[in-house]
Specification:
- With 317 residues, the chain is α/β, with parallel strands linked by helices.
- The chain has two domains: 146 residues, NAD(P)-binding Rossmann-like Domain (Rossmann fold); 158 residues, Dihydrodipicolinate Reductase, domain 2 (2-Layer Sandwich), CATH 3.30.360.
- The protein contains 13 helices and twelve strands.
- The strands form two sheets. A six-stranded parallel β-sheet has the order 3-2-1-4-5-6, sandwiched between helices. It has a six-stranded mixed β-sheet with strand order 8-10-9-7-11-12.
- Strand 9 and strand 10 form a beta hairpin.
- The radius of gyration is 20 Å and the shape is globular.
- The mean pLDDT is 97.
- Bound molecules: L-homoserine.
- The site of L-homoserine (HSE) has 11 residues, from helix 8.
């Protein structure tokens, strides 16, 4: 039997639980074991409508999950970097494998959490933290075995891509942001999205893995989309271009150059073709050339897909 503890039951935690229930037969057959959701941590037990889920599964005491000896794997989908970060460290020390979608936590504590995971011989996975459904992080070690990665370009925030796409169609910024929130794309505080902190965190994780050296958040120049005007968007489009929130990192002889900023790209390019909540990552390598990964960059089910891909990678014997 394999026991899971879930931290967080918002858009992503709930979607993960639902897919797990819907596909339990296939997943159990792949894993070769019975899978049980043992406990779900939520901040406020009364806030949730549990539908048909056993209310006893829920707790607002995180230690009941991270210190439960029977829990083998923790799935973390809270976005919290306080109590939950402390809880994750306890869980690692207790020998539990960790799967997290928490970009802010992974970016902020990348080296520490990876070292702790090695020390306690557990697996720490965070595919869902970068690029939503796109299986990009799992490809990086395979690419690096046979290549030097020299450059990365991407669109890594679904909310911003959604807003910029909607503004092209004539929607006003505030309405577009509201729609992105309703679609479950935006962070609880969307400032992280539109001011590009979220993209910086994702690029920090991706570039650190891709180049094999620490790329810190403060080494990445940041500019969000809040000052992009309708006029600029329209002028771009007339010139065969689109404005995207581009994340870029490149190896230079002086170190890593990295920025996140609104950038004009050609309509017919990989990044220029992205619509709504889509993301893409282009990885430029010395041997393979350019590799492109594209998919849904945000939302409950796309992100849950990445979480459960990590789960299968850990659980399948
Ligand atoms: N708020 C994030 C986005 C969610 O819009 O991309 C996925 O990381």
């Amino acid at each position: 039997m394999l026991n899971i503890g879930i931290l967080g039951f918002g858009t992503v935690g709930k979607a993960t639980f639902e897919i797990l229930q819907e596909r339990i037969d296939v997943i159990e057959a792949s894993v070769g074991d019975e899978i049980i959701v043992k406990k779900i941590f939520v901040r406020n037990k009364n806030k949730h409508n549990y539908d048909n889920i056993d209310a006893n599964l829920f707790t607002d005491v995180i230690s009941e999950v991270v210190e439960d000896d029977s829990v083998d794997i923790i799935i973390e989908a809270t976005g919290d970097v306080g109590v939950v970060y402390e809880g994750i460290k306890v869980a690692i020390a207790n020998g539990k494998h960790i799967i997290t979608a928490n970009k802010e936590m992974v970016s902020r504590h990348f080296e520490e959490l990876n070292q702790l995971a090695n020390k306690h011989d557990i697996q720490l996975k965070y595919e869902a933290a970068v690029g939503g459904a796109i299986p990009i992080l799992c490809q990086i070690p395979k690419i690096r075995e046979l290549n030097e990665i020299v450059e990365i370009n991407g669109v890594l925030n679904g909310t911003c891509n959604f807003i910029l796409s909607a503004m092209e169609k004539g929607m006003d910024y505030n309405k577009a942001l509201l729609d992105a929130q309703q679609a479950g794309f935006a962070e609880a505080d969307p400032t992280a999205d539109v001011e590009a902190y979220d993209t910086v965190r994702k690029l920090r994780i991706l570039a650190t893995l891709a180049f094999g050296v620490k790329v810190a958040e403060d080494e990445i120049t940041r500019e969000g989309i809040i000052n992009v005007s309708k006029k600029e968007i329209d002028t771009s489009k007339k010139n065969g271009m689109r404005i995207k929130l581009v994340a870029h990192a490149k190896k230079t002889k002086d170190g890593i150059e990295a920025f996140v900023k609104p950038t004009e790209v050609e309509i017919n390019s990989v990044l220029g073709g992205l619509e709504d909540g889509e993301n893409a990552v282009s990885v430029v390598c010395d041997n393979a050339g350019e590799l492109v990964f594209k998919g849904k960059g945000a939302g409950g089910r796309p992100t849950a897909f990445s979480i459960l891909s990590d789960f299968l990678a850990i659980a399948c014997k």
